[in-house]
Amino acid sequence: MLGKIAFFEADDRSDIAADRARILPALRQHLQSSGQNAIVTPALAGTLGICFDADVAGEKRFLKTHLPDTAARASLAREADFLFRLYGKTIVLDRFEVPLPDGTTRLCLLMPALAPLAGPMQPADAAAMARECSERLGDWRPDNLPSFRQYQAFAGRALKTLSDRGLLEQASATEVFRLIGRLEDGLVDWPEAICHGDFGPKNIMLEGTKPRVIDWEDAFVGIAGYDYLYWLTFMENRPFLYTAAFGRTGLPPDIERAILVLVVLLKSYLAVCSGAYLKHTVPPQARVTEILELR
Description:
By secondary structure, the protein is α+β, with helices and mostly antiparallel strands. It has 10 helices and 10 strands. The strands form 3 sheets. It has a 5-stranded antiparallel β-sheet with strand order 1-2-3-5-4, sandwiched between helices. Strands 6-8-9 form a 3-stranded antiparallel β-sheet, with no helix packed on it. Strands 7-10 form a two-stranded antiparallel ribbon. Helix 1 packs parallel to helix 9 and helix 4 packs antiparallel against helix 7. The longest helix is centred in the C-terminal third of the chain and has 22 residues. It is globular and about 65 Å long. The protein starts with a helix and ends with a helix.
């Protein structure tokens, strides 16, 4: 989530649609240069991704590249490393450089066309999948991976912005501040793990019948259990908040609540930065209150 927040905080952010249109001809040319018949069309997937659907020699494929900055490139390269460690060569089929007319290149990942889940995932399955990813990644820590303390720094800006704009009442802001402080005070006490950072329904896809967790661009070193709690905050999963918010991560309930409120705070801040909150049916105050009142 931090990458998306940083993108919308910036005044000089890239024009994603224009960049996608600029890359498309070069990508088609690159794929067809090997003599393969390739049809490539834009895919409006992800918040920041430059993505394409493709038919390469009769095979359905998905292509992903990055925005024109070194941080975005590094993030995509790191994502490929995550997918290889988790699933071998079954998800990233190829990674290659696409030359552009201005003399620059873009890293591109070629993947199979995965399918969405057939139905809603249950909390126990989501918790098990998040735990399995963490266990597979083990103690591996790629270079320059964001830390949980960076999330806490963004939380401070988020809390101030929502409060200043009147989107969060003072009593709620005070309790949110206390809970986030609780996380910081005991950070060394909670089990560390690599967290996906955007563990939601759209990032869990099927390779045949096998569920795969994709889009690791927001991965960070955080607290084991974070991803499951993050999963609960998606609108389609909100009913599970009332029955499955506590007791599935191994963390104390007050820490589970603190993580939930941190996620909702940052999601609300992202919506404000992007302007999306103007179309949301549930305002930030209501979302935060929902977490604070969970029993």
